[in-house]
C-alpha cells in the first residue's frame, strides 16, 4: 500500500483578484515516494482557467511545477468567495512512462490500483495599492513571482477604484468535487484582451444584423398585408363591375320591351282606316243634299 505520493505547495490556489485583469498562480508538486508518479489536473470550471501543463510524470524525490491562469472577470463575485475547485490526481506508473503515454484510464480507480486525490480550493485576494502583497497569518508579506502574477491590462476601468475585501472567509461551501460530481479536465486556453474585444465587436455586429433582419421582416409583413388588401379591393371592384354590367343589360332589355309595346297594332290601324273610309263614303251624299 502506497503512502502519500505528492506534496502540493501551496495547498490552496490564491489569486490576486482585479477586475478585467488575468491572474496567475504557480503550484509545485513534490514526489515524496520512490516511484515514478503520473499526475493529472482537473477543475469544476475548465472555461475559467488555463492550466499548463495538465498532465506530467514526476521522477522519485523530484518536483514539478504547473501554472494556473484565471480568466479576467468583469464583475466581482459576491463577498469575494469563489466556489471553484481543483483536483490533483496522481498514481504510480512504470519506469520509462512518458507524457504521451498518459491516458484517462490511468486515473480510474479499481481493484488493486491506488489513485491519490488531492483537492485544492480557489481563494481570491484583493491587491493592496503597492507592492503586491498577500495576507498570511494575519500579516502582510510580499508574494513570490512564482506564486502569483498579474497580467496587466492597458484598458482603463471605472471599477479599479472600488476597494475589495482584503481577506476571504475560509468557510467556503463544498463544491462539485465534494458532492462527487464528475470533474472535467482543464483546457489549455490562452486568454487575451484583443480576442475579447473582437468577440464584443462580433456580438455587436450580430445584434445589429438581427435588428436589421427584424426590421426587414416587419416591412415584409406590412407589404404582404398591403398586397392582400389591394387584392381584395380589386376582387370587390371586379364583382361590382360585373354586377353593374348585369343591371345595365337588364335595364336595356326592359327598355327595348317597352319600345315594342308603344303605339297601336297594325290591325287596329287598318280597321280604323276602313271604318273611317266607310263612314266618309256614307256621309258624303247626305252632305251634298
Task: Walk me through this protein's architecture.
By secondary structure, this protein is an alpha+beta fold. It has 2 domains: 6-190, Immunoglobulin-like; 192-289. It is built from 2 helices and 13 strands, in the order βββββββββββββαα. It has helices spanning 193-261, 266-288, and strands at residues 6-9, 13-16, 22-31, 36-43, 49-52, 55-58, 63-70, 85-93, 115-125, 133-136, 139-142, 148-151, 184-185. Strands 2, 4, 6, 8, 9 and 13 form a 6-stranded mixed β-sheet that branches. Strands 1, 3, 5, 7 and 12 form a 5-stranded antiparallel β-sheet that branches. Strands 10-11 form a two-stranded antiparallel sheet. The protein is rod-shaped and about 180 Å long. The chain crosses the membrane at residues 262-283. Residues 5-125 form the MSP domain. InterPro entries: Ig-like_fold (IPR013783), MSP_dom (IPR000535), PapD-like_sf (IPR008962), VAP (IPR016763). Pfam families: Motile_Sperm. Belongs to the VAMP-associated protein (VAP) (TC 9.B.17) family.
The CATH class of the largest domain, by name, is Mainly Beta
What is the CA-CA span between the terminal residues?
176 Å
Which blocks of ≥5 consecutive residues have pLDDT under 50? Answer: 130-182, 186-191
Question: What profile does the largest beta sheet have?
Answer: 6 strands, mixed
User: What percentage of the residues does DSSP assign to strands (E)?
Assistant: 25-35%
Protein name: Putative vesicle-associated protein 2-2
InterPro entries: Ig-like_fold (IPR013783), MSP_dom (IPR000535), PapD-like_sf (IPR008962), VAP (IPR016763)
EC number: 2.7.11.1
Pfam family, one: Motile_Sperm
Amino acid at each position: 500500500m502506497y503512502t502519500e505520493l505528492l506534496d502540493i505547495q501551496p495547498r490552496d490556489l490564491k489569486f490576486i483578484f482585479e477586475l478585467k485583469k488575468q491572474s496567475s498562480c504557480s503550484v509545485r508538486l513534490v514526489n515524496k515516494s520512490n516511484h515514478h508518479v503520473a499526475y493529472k489536473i482537473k477543475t469544476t470550471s475548465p472555461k475559467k482557467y488555463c492550466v499548463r501543463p495538465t498532465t506530467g510524470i514526476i521522477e522519485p524525490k523530484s518536483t514539478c511545477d504547473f501554472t494556473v491562469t484565471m480568466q479576467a472577470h468583469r464583475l466581482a463575485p459576491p463577498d469575494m468567495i469563489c466556489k471553484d475547485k481543483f483536483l490533483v490526481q496522481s498514481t504510480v506508473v512504470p519506469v520509462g512512462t512518458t507524457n504521451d503515454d498518459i491516458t484517462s484510464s490511468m486515473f480510474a480507480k479499481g481493484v488493486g490500483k491506488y489513485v491519490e486525490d488531492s483537492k485544492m480550493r480557489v481563494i481570491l485576494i484583493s491587491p493592496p495599492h503597492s507592492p503586491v502583497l498577500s495576507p498570511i497569518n494575519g500579516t502582510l508579506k510580499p508574494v513570490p513571482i512564482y506564486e502569483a502574477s498579474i497580467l496587466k491590462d492597458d484598458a482603463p476601468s471605472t471599477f479599479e477604484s472600488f476597494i475589495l475585501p482584503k481577506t476571504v472567509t475560509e468557510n467556503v461551501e463544498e463544491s462539485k468535487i465534494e458532492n462527487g460530481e464528475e470533474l472535467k479536465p482543464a483546457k489549455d486556453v490562452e486568454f487575451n484582451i484583443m480576442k475579447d474585444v473582437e468577440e464584443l465587436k462580433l456580438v455587436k455586429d450580430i445584434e445589429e444584423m438581427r435588428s436589421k433582419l427584424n426590421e426587414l421582416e416587419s416591412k415584409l409583413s406590412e407589404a404582404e398585408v398591403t398586397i392582400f388588401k389591394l387584392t381584395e379591393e380589386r376582387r370587390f371592384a371586379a364583382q361590382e363591375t360585373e354586377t353593374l354590367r348585369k343591371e345595365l343589360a337588364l335595364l336595356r332589355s326592359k327598355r327595348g320591351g317597352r319600345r315594342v309595346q308603344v303605339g297601336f297594332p297594325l290591325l287596329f290601324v287598318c280597321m280604323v282606316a276602313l271604318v273611317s273610309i266607310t263612314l266618309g263614303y256614307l256621309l258624303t251624299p247626305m252632305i251634298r243634299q
